[in-house]
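Work Package 3 (structural annotation) set out to generate three-dimensional models for the target panel prioritized at the project kickoff. During this period the team completed the workflow that converts sequence records into discrete structure tokens, so that structures can be stored uniformly alongside our sequence database. As a representative example, we reproduce one entry of 186 residues exactly as it appears in the project archive.
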Amino acid sequence: MVNLLKSALYVSAVLSTSLFVTSAVAEDDKMTEDLMTEKIGRAKSAAPASISDEATIVVDGKIVVEGSNGWTCMPDTFPNDGMPMCNDAVWMEMLTAMVNKKDFTATKIGISYMLQGDRGAGVSNTDPYHPDPKNADDYVETGPHLMIIVPKAMLEGITDDPSSGGPYVMWKDTPYVHIMVPVADK
């Protein structure tokens, strides 16, 4: 009888633990699902719906939505920085080169949207690899903007001064040079 009681208590404890773990896993799945929904929404917020609604969505380096229009949207430019962006194929090629510290030469125009701005993350206007961009002499924050890659010859005559009040050149002396086009006040 004592053994039967012990067995019953053991089974009860296992079932209770099992239900708790199953409940916790369900909660984690729900939180993961909610977080993924939030990240997809943030990624799509980077560009007009006419682009982002049909774009491929990449979250944490994984495709979570397969798109059909050649655009790629991400909730974070770099892991967890909160700067959503949507890029055409040329921009994706440039970002891949930049992340891998490889050379890149623009041979055609590329467009990227960052309609949420850089959300206070900011960058060095001359050095994409600055170790502490917020303390760079040329630190810049840009509100909602477009970024345009063009062949270098097309950059002539465009200022690299972000305080000029209009489009400016970023990362001028690097292979990743592009035009920043503010579209609204910060």
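DSSP finds three helices and ten strands in the chain.
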